[in-house]
């Protein structure tokens, strides 16, 4: 029988964390010290058992009560931590159940933790799964053909960058100039912006509605609007959101009054909801989540820019050669 190992997520992924799924934290609200706290409380992994497990149907072992008890033993020494089991469902990898837990920290921040649990409930590992195969990103690339967000750039471009973003998210603010830089350096790329406002943010949904209206009226103004909102992000509150967002529309060259009226329409909210639903089909659980031609990048702002540009350039070359 294989040995069991204690593998902190930081050791499992290390420098490749921004390329893979990593420890599935909501990047827009994580704090370094809190992340280390969760990383230290690592999960026991039985590596050799993963490929021998039967197909997971609906586990009667991995229940909400079991997960809560597990969390109690993992985190019970810190009475300031609270958690809620968000979901328990069959994992993409046969024989595993995927458990998502939302951990509330004493400073008010929340962190989302995803663990993969053996169907028998005896072993688990922290983090998401990475795709594998001759073309490991082909499946997500195909699914992303169904994007319903705002499109900027040539529709026949060989490479598409899709970003799921929340305008109230500090890490999305950090990611925005990186995406802008990539689009400027490689004009033969199509960009799709998918609104993904998180429920814990009190004006993010309104910002998403404004973004939807700006982008659908004039896609060329979208990036400027996003930049204006991110520049003023720290000064925007739930009470001042309309005035601040209208100012961002004006700064981007749009009609603030017409955009505000559009943002208040039920059909605009419906489009944003459909963007959220599409993100769920792509297993998006954190912002920003970026896909470069199907390749998931969880923390694009943390990666060296030259590496991101290299991935874009490589995909442009590869996809152009296939035409």
Give an overview of the whole structure:
The protein has 2 domains: 5-126, no CATH class; 138-322, Glutaredoxin (3-Layer(aba) Sandwich). It has 323 residues and is α+β, with helices and mostly antiparallel strands. The chain is 39% helix and 18% strand. The protein has helices at 9-13, 32-40, 64-75, 138-143, 170-185, 204-217, 222-231, 241-251, 256-263, 266-281, 305-322, and strands at residues 5-6, 44-45, 82-90, 96-104, 110-118, 124-126, 150-152, 159-165, 189-195, 289-292, 295-297. The strands form 3 sheets. Strands 7-9-8-10-11 form a 5-stranded mixed β-sheet, with helices on both faces. A 4-stranded antiparallel β-sheet has the order 3-4-5-6, with helices on one face. It has a two-stranded antiparallel ribbon with strand order 1-2. The chain has 11 helices and 11 strands. The longest helix has 18 residues, at 305-322. A hairpin with a 5-residue loop joins strand 4 and strand 5.
In terms of topology, how is this protein built?
Layout: E1 5-6, H1 9-13, H2 32-40, E2 44-45, H3 64-75, E3 82-90, E4 96-104, E5 110-118, E6 124-126, H4 138-143, E7 150-152, E8 159-165, H5 170-185, E9 189-195, H6 204-217, H7 222-231, H8 241-251, H9 256-263, H10 266-281, E10 289-292, E11 295-297, H11 305-322
Parallel strand pairs: 8-9
Antiparallel strand pairs: 1-2, 3-4, 4-5, 5-6, 7-9, 8-10, 10-11
Helix pairs in contact: 5-7, 6-7, 6-8, 6-9, 6-10, 7-8, 8-9
What would the keywords be for this entry?
single chain; 323 residues; alpha+beta; Glutaredoxin; 2 domains; five-stranded mixed β-sheet; four-stranded antiparallel β-sheet
């Amino acid at each position: 029988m294989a040995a069991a190992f204690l593998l902190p997520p930081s050791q499992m992924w290390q420098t490749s964390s921004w390329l893979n799924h990593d420890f599935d934290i909501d990047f827009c609200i994580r704090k370094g010290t809190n992340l280390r706290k969760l990383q230290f409380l690592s999960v026991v992994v039985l590596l050799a058992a993963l490929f021998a497990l039967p197909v997971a149907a609906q586990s009667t072992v991995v229940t909400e009560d079991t997960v809560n008890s597990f969390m109690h033993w993992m985190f019970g020494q810190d009475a300031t931590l609270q958690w809620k089991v968000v979901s328990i469902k069959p994992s993409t990898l046969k024989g595993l159940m995927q458990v998502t837990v939302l951990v509330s920290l004493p400073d008010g921040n929340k962190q989302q933790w995803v663990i993969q649990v053996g169907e028998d409930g005896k072993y688990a590992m922290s983090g998401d799964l990475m795709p594998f195969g001759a073309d490991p990103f082909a499946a997500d690339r195909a699914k992303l053909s169904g994007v319903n967000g705002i499109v900027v750039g040539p529709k026949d471009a060989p490479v598409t960058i899709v970003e799921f973003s929340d305008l109230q998210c500090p890490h999305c603010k950090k990611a925005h100039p990186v995406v802008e830089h990539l689009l400027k350096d490689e004009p033969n790329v199509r960009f799709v912006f998918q609104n993904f406002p998180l429920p814990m943010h009190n004006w993010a949904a309104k910002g998403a509605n404004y973004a939807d209206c700006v982008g659908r009226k004039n896609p060329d103004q979208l990036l400027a609007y996003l930049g204006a909102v991110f520049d003023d992000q720290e000064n925007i509150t739930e009470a001042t959101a309309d005035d601040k967002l209208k100012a961002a529309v004006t700064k981007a060259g749009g009609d603030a009054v017409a955009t505000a009226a559009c943002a208040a329409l039920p059909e605009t909210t419906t489009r944003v909801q459909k963007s959220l639903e599409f993100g769920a089909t792509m297993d998006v659980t954190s912002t920003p989540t970026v896909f470069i031609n199907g390749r998931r990048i969880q923390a694009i702002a943390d990666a060296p820019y030259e590496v991101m540009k290299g991935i874009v350039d490589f995909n442009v070359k590869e996809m152009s050669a296939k035409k």
